From TrEMBL:
Localization per Swiss-Prot or TrEMBL: Cell membrane
Family (UniProt): Belongs to the binding-protein-dependent transport system permease family. CysTW subfamily.
Protein name per Swiss-Prot or TrEMBL: ABC transporter permease
InterPro entries: Bact_Polyamine_Transport, MetI-like, MetI-like_sf
GO process terms (BP): transmembrane transport
Organism per entry: Nonomuraea montanisoli
């Protein structure tokens, strides 16, 4: 009898079954709010304050943009999320490459600041940004929201790209340069494709953090209302079912992008 057979754990143990059941219980618990949101996007709601199931309907999808304030808030959130994500991905990728590949004076301090930004409570970050904008006499609007979102999501992109860069083989870049590639050519044809999965993952994370942020945005928004701010403001009067539909569409698009990214990554590995 081989050593592998002797050390193999018996299947069907009670502990394994309990662990599997507990894992599925956690998954169901975390997914239940999303499932309720999707379900109530089809609820034939009779009044604003009604939270019970009244019947199946598709009219909220047909009347998705009938509430002008809600539509404007969604547009603001998407504009801020796209703009902040693009800026964050560019800066975070360069910073991640620098921290993961090069040694320079102040590298340790920079690493500390990156992780400190991740661990900083949103309340503290929002209050500090508000003080900064007020001290600089900068009017609070969509621009200040974008700046704030770049600042709190930059660290997440940087850490993601840095983790990818650390695993790269530097000999590939050296071989490209030995074959006559310029610095830009080496980056474009070797480095960037290698770190692209980390860049895409960081970008998706930055977009998700931006689209649903409430705490920091509430400090720096001024008169600009985003999707989360509009939802919180409408709690007292009743949340319309269009909110559930918009949330469902945002969630569905996010899932499709994540699946496409995973499929593309698997194809690159094969």
């Amino acid at each position: 009898m081989s050593a592998t057979t002797l050390t193999r754990r018996p299947r069907g143990r009670l502990g394994d079954r309990l662990l599997h059941a507990y894992t599925w219980l956690i998954i169901v618990w975390l997914s239940s709010p999303i499932a309720v949101m999707i379900l109530f996007g089809f609820n034939d709601k009779k009044s604003k304050s009604n939270t019970s199931w009244q019947g199946f309907t598709l009219r909220w999808y047909q009347q998705l943009f009938d509430i002008s304030d809600l539509t404007t808030a969604l547009k603001n959130s998407l504009t801020v999320a796209v703009a902040s994500t693009l800026i964050t991905v560019v800066i975070g990728t360069m910073l991640g490459l620098a921290l993961g590949r090069h040694r320079f004076r102040g590298r340790g301090v920079t690493n500390f600041l990156v992780f400190a930004a991740i661990s900083t409570p949103e309340l503290v970050m929002g209050a500090s940004l508000l003080s900064l904008f007020v001290s600089a006499n900068l009017p609070r609007d969509a621009l200040t929201i974008i700046i704030a979102h770049v600042l709190f999501s930059l660290s997440f992109v940087t850490v993601t790209v840095r983790a990818r860069v650390i695993t790269l083989d530097p000999s590939l870049e050296e071989a490209a340069r030995d074959l006559g590639a310029t610095a830009w050519g080496t980056f474009r044809q070797v480095t960037l494709p290698a770190v692209l999965p980390g860049v895409l993952s960081g970008g998706m994370l930055a977009f998700a953090l931006s689209i649903d942020d409430y705490v920091v945005t509430s400090f720096v928004n001024g008169s600009t209302v985003t999707f989360p701010l509009w939802i919180i403001g409408s709690v007292k009067t009743g949340i319309p079912p269009q909110v559930n539909v918009m949330g469902t569409l945002i969630f569905g698009i996010g899932v499709l992008i994540a699946v496409a990214n995973a499929v593309a990554a698997r194809r690159r590995r094969t």
